[in-house]
User: What shape does this take?
Amino acid sequence: MSVRVLLVDDQPLVRAGLRVLMADALDLTVTGEAGTGAEAVRLARETAPDVVLMDLRMPGLDGIAATRAITAAGGPTRVLVLTTFDDDEHVHAALRAGASGFLVKDMALEEILGAVRVVAAGDALIAPGVTRRLIAEFARRPDAVPRPRGLPGVTDREREVLTLVGRGLSNAEIAAELVISPATAKAHVARLFTKLDARDRVHLVIAAYDAGLVLPSG
Assistant: This one.
């Protein structure tokens, strides 16, 4: 089945480039385009796309508020943020608003298409290397202070795994670090998804920060 995608960006050229690229992909279909957050919310409601490729900086209702409105509806639509990573201060807020991950605009177009497919499949949304970049960006911000909270029901081993996820390690790297099998590492991560009500790996990273397991100072 084709993955239905809503393109949201205030720059028509960006939307046009993505539309042309997706037109060549047999498994991707663009359901619509929006240049503002308000349009994005309306079109997401009307067309029910599988994935919304969401810019953050837009006039009027911004991408964070639009993401919150779309995900609050509780439907199957997932939001994937597309942002200029180096100068955008709102990525973390977007993730908290319910975005399932983020892409950076300097990524290769084929990588963006691949990420859309991953999001639509409900799999892990941010590659470990990109997660490390996100963590490094948080560390440079003066307001990047975690808000400690408890982790009820999480075992000591799962806390160790969550810490490593927060540091940006993949399941294979976690397995090597803890001297366990990759399958065991994957099982621990899966249990953390359930216990922390996390939709994906991005939200496990946020949980690690909130619990104080990973600090901005590194």
Q: What stands out?
A: The first helix runs from residue 12 to 23. The radius of gyration is 17 Å. DSSP finds ten helices and five strands in the chain. Strands lie at 3-8, 28-34, 51-54, 78-83, 101-104.
